[in-house]
Amino acid sequence: MTIHVVDIEQVTHTCPAFAEAHPYDTRRTVIHVIPGGPCRNPVTIRCGDTTVTIACHRHEPADRQCGACRIIVTQHTITNRHHEVVG
User: Fold this and answer.
1) E strands along 2-85, which residues?
2) Per-residue pLDDT of the chain in tens (87 residues, 90 and over written 9)
3) Full strand arrangement of the beta sheet holding 18-34
4) Is 64 in a helix, a strand, or coil?
5) Distance between CA 58 and CA 38 in Å, rounded?
6) How many other C-beta atoms can be found within 10 angstroms of the C-beta atom of residue 62?
7) What is the structure's pLDDT at 18?
8) CB-based contact 70:35 (threshold 8 Å)
9) In the chain, where are the structural domains located?
């Protein structure tokens, strides 16, 4: 399985329309990718008169993909900043 490690930064604010703090800007930064390796269950499909073998992640839904093609996203750090609106 391919693992993507990300840092998340959320900026929140309060405004006259909604008095509770709510996020208005969320940024995700990929800081590391651990590859899962080659596909272990390639799929053969027909394209007209020819057959093509492709990795299962290009054809199958996530629950039917092999372990190497599945993607896992792991949160490394989550930073919350509050932006004060003055005025």
Assistant:
1) 2-15, 18-34, 43-47, 50-54, 71-83
2) 889 999 999 999 888 888 888 888 999 999 999 998 999 999 999 988 999 999 999 999 989 999 999 999 999 999 999 877 665
3) 18-34, 2-15, 71-83
4) helix
5) 13
6) 9
7) 82
8) no
9) 2-83
Q: What pLDDT is attached to residue 86?
A: 60
| Kind of pairing between the strands at 71-83 and 2-15 | parallel
What separation in angstroms does the CA of 40 have from each of 2, 3, 56, 69?
Answer: 13, 17, 8, 8
Which amino acid, residue 27? R
Which residues contact residue 55 at a Cβ distance below 8 angstroms, ignoring those fewer than 6 apart? 38, 39, 42, 43, 69
pTM score, two decimals?
Answer: 0.68
